[in-house]
Design a protein that fits this description.
By secondary structure, the chain is mainly alpha-helical. The chain is built from five helices and three strands. Strands 1-3-2 form a three-stranded antiparallel sheet. Strand 2 and strand 3 (about 75-80) form a beta hairpin. The radius of gyration is 25 Å and the shape is elongated.
């Protein structure tokens, strides 16, 4: 499944699950997938009507091309749309300075001098002076 699926803020959880299912059943060479709605329901836990609505939405957002075949399952091709609204993913890690600032803010909020306890290294692992 393209990672862009996870980053597109327009997609719902149901649409993402449908995309995973379509990618699971897609032919590696042609990209063609043709799971029936019963298979999609078994794969995703999404009812037929909700799956149909989600696929229609994915088609309108440019993620799926659907070829309808009356009397049999549709053919689907997963595509990456030219226009998508990708979220920017940033690291949640803080630098030591930012962490210290954060701890100061917490200390002010709870009204006491809170600091992360300093943990001494286990005996035998402390640096030695030569």
């Amino acid at each position: 499944m393209p990672v862009e699926v996870l980053l597109d803020s327009r997609l719902t959880d149901q649409e993402r699950r449908i995309m995973m299912c379509l990618c699971r059943y897609a032919n590696a060479e042609t990209g063609k997938a043709f799971p029936c709605y019963v298979t999609i329901k078994e794969c995703t836990g999404i009812s037929r009507s909700n799956a149909s609505n989600a696929i229609t939405s994915l088609v309108s957002k440019g993620w799926v091309t659907r070829i309808e075949r009356p009397g049999t399952s549709n053919i689907y091709y997963v595509t990456i749309p030219e226009k998508s609204e990708l979220r920017i993913v940033t690291s949640k890690r803080r630098s030591k300075e930012k962490q210290s600032e954060h701890e100061d803010i917490i200390a002010k909020k709870i009204g006491k001098c809170w600091r992360r306890p300093k943990i001494d290294p286990p005996i035998g692992l402390a640096p030695t002076e030569n």
